[in-house]
# Entry
Amino acid sequence: MESDWAVQHLQTIRTLMERSAVYRHALAPIMLFAGVLGVAAAAIGLFFHCDSLRAFGSLWLGTAVLAAVGALLIVRRQALKDRELFWSPPTRRVVQAILPPLLAGMFLGAMFTFVSRGYPVDFSLLLPFLWAFFYGCALHSAGFFMPRGVKWFGWVYIGLACAILVIIAILRPEAEFSPHWLMGFFFGVLHLVYGAYLYLTEKGKNAA
Amino acid sequence: MNPEPFLQLDRVIHEKGRLAIMSMLAANPELSFTELRDALSMTDGNLTTHIKALQQEGYIYVAKSFQNRRPLTTCSLTAAGRKAFVEYINLLEQIVRQSKSNPSPKDPSESK
# Structure
């Protein structure tokens, strides 16, 4: 049909924009993968009573490394499927954007976990907030090169970490609970919710 | 069929090379000359011509700097460029909607 040129133009624009941005189709599986991993790690921590700072830190630092490797493998698989370059300029930019806050968070986590033995303060309740802040900053930075929702997702982490910290510190200072619950919420539930949202909205867009 | 959307299409963006550049810049805060050239498989001369045309229209901003002692040219969309790109897409969508209910005409650029 002669009028198909407009549709073709729109399709070309869409393809070019998607190719030049990071594989947005990979975002939903990455979020769901990270969510499942987060919930599983929280369950392991609670079930096996990984309550000491060293056990807590080791479990979650290991989970973070696993999540990062898994995310890269998912992006690589998506790139191979679409016959595109894996280490493309957009991917490189996203990695450059998220690396400083992620490395800083992991470094501080490792310091608290392996060096702070003997300190009078228990850092294990502080670590979930610290990691949520750093992770929120990393997502916010990545959001400049990815769908805008990622930037908001970063703000969700920072906002929720602030809110929960205030509630615990001011309203319920006497409350005692395992920090695995917090980690499970921040890095399990939130990822699952955002992954499900992305999956459903992407499905809706494709169906339209 | 209402011919209005066809007439409103931005002539500068409608050219396929410039449309490709605008599409890529719409998805990224900025891209280097090399990234654009490699992604769009254009020659240096061709890309330079299109960039100049878009720059003259005020749609893209071209910055020249140095990276590792080598000159680096980066391009980004200006606010006017982003607005023109969004309007162009809106018009295309309007044309598609119209064509679903009416027999549609040829690409206005092809008829010239």
